Amino acid sequence: MAKWSKQLFIRLLCELIASLLVQFLGCSFGQGSSLAYAFSWGGLIIVGTMAFRIISGAHINPCISIASMILKNIKVLDGFLYMLMQLVGSAIGFLIAYVMFGSNTLFGANTNYCVTTVTVDPWWKALIIEFYLTGAWVLAFCSSWHESNQELNESVSLKIGLVVVGATLVGAQYSHTCMNPFRSLWPAIFSMNFDHIYIYVGMPIVAAILLPFAWLYIYLLGEEETAKGPGAEVKNEEE
Amino acid sequence: MAKWSKQLFIRLLCELIASLLVQFLGCSFGQGSSLAYAFSWGGLIIVGTMAFRIISGAHINPCISIASMILKNIKVLDGFLYMLMQLVGSAIGFLIAYVMFGSNTLFGANTNYCVTTVTVDPWWKALIIEFYLTGAWVLAFCSSWHESNQELNESVSLKIGLVVVGATLVGAQYSHTCMNPFRSLWPAIFSMNFDHIYIYVGMPIVAAILLPFAWLYIYLLGEEETAKGPGAEVKNEEE
Amino acid sequence: MAKWSKQLFIRLLCELIASLLVQFLGCSFGQGSSLAYAFSWGGLIIVGTMAFRIISGAHINPCISIASMILKNIKVLDGFLYMLMQLVGSAIGFLIAYVMFGSNTLFGANTNYCVTTVTVDPWWKALIIEFYLTGAWVLAFCSSWHESNQELNESVSLKIGLVVVGATLVGAQYSHTCMNPFRSLWPAIFSMNFDHIYIYVGMPIVAAILLPFAWLYIYLLGEEETAKGPGAEVKNEEE
Amino acid sequence: MAKWSKQLFIRLLCELIASLLVQFLGCSFGQGSSLAYAFSWGGLIIVGTMAFRIISGAHINPCISIASMILKNIKVLDGFLYMLMQLVGSAIGFLIAYVMFGSNTLFGANTNYCVTTVTVDPWWKALIIEFYLTGAWVLAFCSSWHESNQELNESVSLKIGLVVVGATLVGAQYSHTCMNPFRSLWPAIFSMNFDHIYIYVGMPIVAAILLPFAWLYIYLLGEEETAKGPGAEVKNEEE
């Protein structure tokens, strides 16, 4: 189990700040084409990954933390602490955006601000789309941790960012492309709009559990070639 | 001839999954500007290349497998197995998209769902456009296999992805930019719309045969400087 | 204190030229979607960073020079000289754009040419948005100077450029996304329109001061792992 | 003087093919937003640079060949042969596009097909814009040849491509962003529309001559730190 160290504290702080930044600015994006929407979220993921991958690995998304735990890139306890930080960070980030742009009086109107809604009929199609889109993000991360990429990961933030752009564009018409449970959870709670919330919370997590196992036991034949990711175990004192 | 090994099985599985993912999500993209269309397909190629290049080389497109065989980056039999997997993968991927978004009743309506159509007059202009666009993709891959790029291929997924974005934009108005025989084959079969299907199946293959020979015997003067691509021969036991 | 050397003179010249180029071409961008606006500024930052990072570090923005001084990537006096050059460069760049496209008679009409205006109500929301957007840019630069990125900084211009694209898109609807005091200062002076100018001049500087301290003392635990940036101290004779 | 060798022949062929490809597909791009226009040309420059930089350096543009000669990255005679190939290549490329999409009968109608026109008033403003935009491209190339980038030039095609995207967006409203004399020359000849052709032929060449001298004697203090570019002198037998 990870000792409560200063190093770990910094890494958790990084996850909190990164989640806050992405959720706040992402929800601040107003109205525009799906292309502008996609490049906003993609650009924010580039910033977050670039600034914090050195220190915490820049998971930002609980799905990535789950995948990291399965691939043993991060310790299980650390992973849960990361997810807690992401939960808190995205809550604060959403709150700032909500107070500023979402409503005139806090907790007043039900504006559906920044809520991801299912716009495809029937609803279960959004479920499949979310599974695949989150899967794409998770697979992109899995490959970035592979030992053949250990040395050369400088452009990883660019790649993840453009993957998010592409995935956001595909899902924009069906499910608003969540890919992150917390990104949809807070807007849903504040708007008291829980329609299909199980899709946005559930499917990304299912993808985040299934795909790393497939990666580890099918693609890598269980050989555990996972690189020690930046900011991960390497900096932990107990190793 | 390649032995039927576990390694080969994984590589074939990767091609199948990558083709399924790109075809499913690409066909799931609904309506939007040609720019959003281009970034969707480009982003998916980035995901596929990023996730699977380590293991199988991430051909995704049979044209790339043909070019790989000619450049001896992959064995001839493996190449044909790759193409078989791409055929099956894109069939499954298209089927999922078709059931979800293409029609209410399977095999019911003739909706031209995800079909690439020739919108330029006369039709043979689309043929020339497809030849050049596929040629651009094939040349980009040829250069990514060159030995001077053997060490530094981390951003190859980004480059291929943006090449697909640019090529898709150019062809969008004339031929919907196929560049991959299987990408057009399945939508044509399910819609029973075989207009100009020979353009989409034929021209990419012609480009995929001619350009690697030009690359090998003209540009490289027949010196076979082709790097052993990631996931290719290196992992084969008979070497 | 830095000697007035030929090396320093060249670095200062680079900052002047880079600021001139970005301000002139950025302000020359006419009308278009927020996406085209974002890619114009982002593309210019790529050019500037690519061309001048080798020699001067390509700060372009005084916020980056302030962050550099705090992280000891550059000497304090050099930093102030950099900022002076940026001020002069963006003045010249703006003047060229203004004479060409901003007015028929210089100093004649009050056209609000290239002015960043607050379009969100109330005004203090723009202040928060500018703080976070500038913060994203500053953090991206901080990470590019970290020693783990010392070897591999070739794609830094791409990453910074796409961060600017994403940030510009987010802020486009609220504050026109300044992120650089001088970028807004000169248009305001020439149009004699000083509405909310304290936001555009003040907040980026606040972000530029707070975030590097957080980076240094919180993230890096005060260990000064800052790499000697390209074109920075390394070339100074007194070291 | 360069011997007429097989190596040189291949390099010249590469320049011819690259210019043909970019001019043909660029002119084939039909109608669309300036953003789609910019990403089409940018994507084509990525393909061309990616595929041919290994062999010939992928100048594509005579301005780059002029800059290469001044920086001694390529021999003077080779540079002129490169330019001849670019002239022939873009002529063939334009001709294919013109026959296919520009007119029904060759040399028949004056359609202004693919012509770059000055849309800003007065005309000399386009001249200044073209100077700066071409200058940005030339400076980006100069930096890619600097010895500090000799090892790490894998993402150079991406960077040049996005620089072209940004520059094209800025100039789209004023001068259609030529940046390459031959790109505008052939459309002008075929349409017999020579309005302002001196801007498109002249200014890029002026920028291509002035900026490399500034780079060499001002930025680098005349120290000739230019790296031997890929495909350049290294492969020449007389060295």
TrEMBL record, chains A, B, C, D:
Coarse class of the protein's main subcellular location: membrane
Name used for this protein in its record: Aquaporin-5-like
Subcellular location as annotated: Membrane
Keywords of this entry: Membrane, Transmembrane, Transmembrane helix, Transport
Pfam families in the cross-refs: MIP
Matches recorded under InterPro entries: Aquaporin-like, Aquaporin_transptr, MIP
Molecular function GO terms recorded: channel activity
UniProt KW Signal keyword: no
GO CC annotation terms, alphabetical: plasma membrane
Organism name: Drosophila hydei
Entry membrane topology: Multi-pass membrane protein
Bilayer-spanning residue ranges: 12-32, 38-60, 80-103, 123-144, 156-177, 197-220
Family classification: Belongs to the MIP/aquaporin (TC 1.A.8) family.
